[in-house]
Amino acid sequence: MNWEKLNEREKRMVLIGGLAAFVLLYLFAFLLPTLEDIHKQKHKIPLRQIEASDIQKQLNLLYSYPKTREYSGDYLAELETLSEAIGVKEKMTYRPLGEDKKEAELKLDDMSCEEFVRFLYGLKKAGIPIKQLNMQDFEGDNLWNIKITLGG
């Protein structure tokens, strides 16, 4: 089929058909899946807000307890004991920071919220100061990757 051989009406029909095909392709290939993903994420927001609220309540309760003792030792022994008691030793990696080893970086992978709160309570109870805390849930499966800087 040659474009020049088509009359004006046929050219207009081909252009309208091509535009309609493009709009339908865009709608079904890009717009609808995106809107569906947005809809799914909107349903997760209230659940995440409830989880965040629960964690905040537990943290507030945790920090309302008085400090049991000042910590003045190597963190590793205390952390190993604590992680074994909670059952998360295989999820923990530890790295001392600085030459005086007064600070340490602790990474905990794939921890549930309950395990993390129990671990955090154990740190607080042991008197280990927390300098920085970073939590991330990459897959949305409620298993957290946590990085804690210990020390004062």
Describe it for me?
- This protein is of the alpha+beta class.
- It folds into two domains: 3-61; 69-150, Alpha-Beta Plaits (2-Layer Sandwich).
- The chain is 55% helix and 19% strand.
- The protein contains three helices and four strands; from the N terminus they run ααββαββ.
- The protein has a four-stranded antiparallel sheet with strand order 1-2-4-3, with helices on one face.
- The longest helix is centred in the first third of the chain and has 57 residues, at 8-64.
- The chain is elongated.
Question: What's the helix and strand layout?
Answer:
Layout: H1 8-64, H2 75-86, E1 92-97, E2 103-111, H3 113-126, E3 130-136, E4 144-150
Helix pairs in contact: 1-3, 2-3
What is this structure, in a nutshell?
With 152 residues, the chain is α+β, with helices and mostly antiparallel strands. Helix content is 55%, strand content 19%.
* Shape-level CATH architecture of the largest domain: 2-Layer Sandwich
Please identify the top-level CATH class of the largest domain.
Answer: Alpha Beta
SSE string, helices as H and strands as E: HHEEHEE
Cα radius of gyration in angstroms: 28 Å
* Contiguous runs where pLDDT drops below 50 for at least 5 residues: none
Beta-strand percent range: 15-25%
- Any idea how many domains? 2
Which structural class do you get from the secondary structure elements? alpha+beta
Please describe the structure with a list of short key phrases separated by commas or semicolons.
Alpha-Beta Plaits; about 150 residues; alpha+beta; 4-stranded antiparallel β-sheet; 3 helices; 4 strands
